[in-house]
């Protein structure tokens, strides 16, 4: 496994003297935890991040910035890889709580999310991973006109018809098409992105 760079911002000074702090860098993936389970999110290329944090009052801060991960997903119909560059705007309240072992997101009464942290060397892995998942589409097509795969032999119909498609009688043919479309959506629902396997959000 390649070595991971953890996206961090150091807030030790801010905890003593109000002001602002900045951090930037690149990550090829994120290693994070969800429900105590260690998970990994891999990007197709190095993903740049940039964050700045300002003091508000007391133990509260405002974090903003950007994150640009490129995901590699599978076309929902033909399964060929699709690169999907995302451009995320980040913005969240932060609260320092020395009792917090690992940073976690908490919902305030206002419905806003607050990132609670206890280590002044704030690891943004969880936050960036969750922000990425929120912006990820449930399924993608490599082309809106993608013809998918032959249901019989798996031939990629984007490259031309196969013998099965040609041999199927007209009525059956339209039935098969419906089936194919149905299976396409099923696949998209159950298996939104193979590249992000293991990143399911926790059950609500
Ligand atoms: Zn496709
Ligand atoms: Zn075929």
Short structural summary:
The protein is 21% helix and 37% strand. The chain is built from 4 helices and 10 strands. The strands form 3 sheets. A 6-stranded mixed beta sheet has the order 2-3-4-7-9-8. A two-stranded antiparallel sheet has the order 1-10.
Can you give a write-up of this model?
- The protein has 204 residues and is α+β, with helices and mostly antiparallel strands.
- It is built from four helices and ten strands, in the order βαβββββββββααα.
- The chain has helices at 12-16, 125-135, 163-167, 170-190; strands at 8-10, 20-34, 37-55, 60-67, 70-74, 81-85, 88-96, 104-107, 113-117, 121-123.
- The strands form three sheets. The chain has a six-stranded mixed beta sheet with strand order 2-3-4-7-9-8. The chain has a two-stranded antiparallel sheet with strand order 1-10.
- Strand 8 (104-107) and strand 9 form a beta hairpin.
- It is elongated, with a radius of gyration of 22 Å.
- It binds zinc ion (ZN) (2 copies).
- Residues 75, 77-78, 80, 141-142, 146 line the site of one zinc ion.
- One zinc ion (ZN) binds next to loops.
> Roughly what is the average pLDDT, rounded to an integer?
83
- Ranges where pLDDT stays below 50 over 5 or more residues in a row are 167-195, 197-201
In whole angstroms, the N-to-C terminal distance is 32 Å
Specify the number of helices: 4
Backbone CA Rg: 22 Å
Q: Helix-strand pattern, N to C?
A: EHEEEEEEEEEHHH
Fraction of residues in helix:
10-25%
Largest sheet: 6 strands, mixed
Strand order of the largest sheet: 2-3-4-7-9-8
Indicate the structural class.
alpha+beta
Count the E strands.
10
* Overall 3D shape: elongated
Ions, cofactors and other bound molecules:
zinc ion
- The fraction of residues assigned to DSSP E strands is 35-45%
């Amino acid at each position: 496994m390649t070595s991971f760079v953890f996206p961090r911002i150091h807030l030790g000074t801010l905890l003593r003297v109000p002001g602002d702090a900045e951090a930037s860098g690149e990550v090829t993936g994120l290693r994070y935890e969800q429900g105590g389970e260690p998970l990994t999110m891999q990007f197709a290329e190095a993903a740049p991040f940039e964050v700045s944090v300002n003091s508000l009052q007391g133990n509260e801060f405002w974090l903003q910035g950007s994150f640009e991960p490129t995901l590699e997903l599978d076309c929902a119909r033909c399964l060929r890889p699709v690169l999907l560059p995302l451009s995320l705007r980040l913005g969240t309240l932060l609260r320092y709580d020395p009792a917090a072992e690992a940073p976690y997101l908490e919902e305030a009464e206002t419905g806003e999310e607050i990132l609670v942290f206890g280590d002044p060397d704030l690891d943004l892995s969880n936050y960036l991973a969750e922000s990425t998942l929120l912006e990820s589409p449930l399924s993608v097509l490599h082309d809106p006109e993608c013809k998918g795969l032959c249901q019989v032999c798996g031939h990629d119909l984007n490259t031309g018809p196969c013998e099965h498609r040609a041999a199927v009688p007209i009525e059956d043919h339209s039935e098969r098409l419906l089936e194919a479309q149905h299976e396409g959506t099923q696949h998209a629902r159950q298996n939104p992105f193979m590249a992000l396997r293991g990143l399911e959000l926790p059950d609500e």
